[in-house]
Amino acid sequence: MAFDGQIRRTGAALLLICGLGLAACGGFVESGGGVARLTVGTEGGTLTLDGFALVVPPHALGGTVTLSAHRAATDAPAGPAFVVEPADTMFDAVAPAELALNYDGALHTHAAEVFVAVFAAGGWHMLAAPTGHTPTLGSAHGLATTGGTFGVVECPGGVCPAIITDAGVAADAP
Hints:
The structure is a single chain. This protein has about 170 residues and is mainly beta. It has one domain (about 25-170): Sandwich (Chondroitinase Ac, Chain A, domain 3), CATH 2.60.220.30. It is built from one helix and 13 strands. A seven-stranded antiparallel sheet has the order 1-2-5-6-11-8-9. The chain has a four-stranded antiparallel sheet with strand order 3-4-7-10, with no helix packed on it. The protein has a two-stranded antiparallel ribbon with strand order 12-13. Strand 1 and strand 2 (about 35-40) form a beta hairpin. The relative contact order is 0.15.
């Protein structure tokens, strides 16, 4: 039975060390079943899922929130779409969250024409790119001030219309 007590003490010590490590990191990351979660506050953090990253800078949030991300049921016009929840999460407009979405560079060969967009009001709306961002083939970047559904759109000539439908066709703004 002394051996059993040693296992319990070792297990308890490991749990304590792991718990202290998580507290020091300022966030708890969990993933599984196609969903990634991040508990994050004013310290900021990064939520990642295959082909997707949401970087929350320090002070972008006013308090602690648990964010989740998963693939959307349908793709965006030029690549995958991801849902970030809760959708009503507000990131500071001065320090917005940065999104990075991977796309197929063999299909969309002009990086300067590929953008991250948010799906709202029945269509895709291009998001601003981070200041000083240089387009990179295979990865699109955008800035978000809320949660929601994000995807990749292609805009010939680098100019997107106000709204892009799922078919990639421009529509008039409401």
